[in-house]
Amino acid sequence: MKRKNKYKFKRNLVEVLKIMFFLGITIVVFLPIMVTVFASFKTQFQIGSEFPLKPPTQFFLDNFKFVFEKGNVLTGLKNSLILVTVSVVVNAVLSTMIAYILSRFDFKLKKMYFLIFLMGMLVPSFVTEIARFGVISKVGLYNTLLAPIVIYIGTDLMQIYIYMQFMNQIPMSIDESAMIDGASYFTIYRKVIFPMVIPATATLGILKAVEVMNDMYIPYLYMPSESKRTLTTMLMSFASQRSGAWPQLSAAVIIVMIPTVTLYIVFQKYIFDGIVAGAVKE
Hints:
single chain, mainly alpha, 14 helices, globular
């Protein structure tokens, strides 16, 4: 009896520690967000005189109005949506084509291709940044929307691996049946393979969209002009020019967060479903 109670005590203690651990992580994640949301509805005087976690007594909307008027938010939103849409579509096509070739055909240096993609993930991006910047400038894409698009549409080993997990579950007999009916390799890819990897495409497309939408470095480096600003570079310039205006800066942060948070809330179910479905083998 005493041994049983001791085991029960240890099990309850582990559960309490787990709850405290995840509660601590939740506080660390949500505390800065709460401070930013509250600050976006306060005046400069309230921020300086009140506790940061105190909710605003009234919603002061002039901060958002100021950001929309001075920050050129609509231009930033338009440029961000163009980058996300074009990058996600072209990236999905290129990734599925590469995965289709690597999963369906055997050829020389096939392992070398995997090694090249692996090296691309292992080498830090800043090592190749100077060379990449030179290439973008030489081909005349600098300070255009095509510069970040060319960078974003490239696939990586994780995307290829997830697509191959899906394609390996598609029987080769389907390809052979299509070939008997006269379908070419491209027709098989377009009408058979691609429609059957739509769940993986939805998952990777959402992750890619969030990555592009949140990226500040590439648009800031390759599109410095004001007319090419995205939401994130708008926020960066806003922070540098208005470093003392925390209410307006907090309002700008909230505006930049809205598209990404909306995208995640609407499509979060497909993110995990797509990855899990590709990992299960029947």
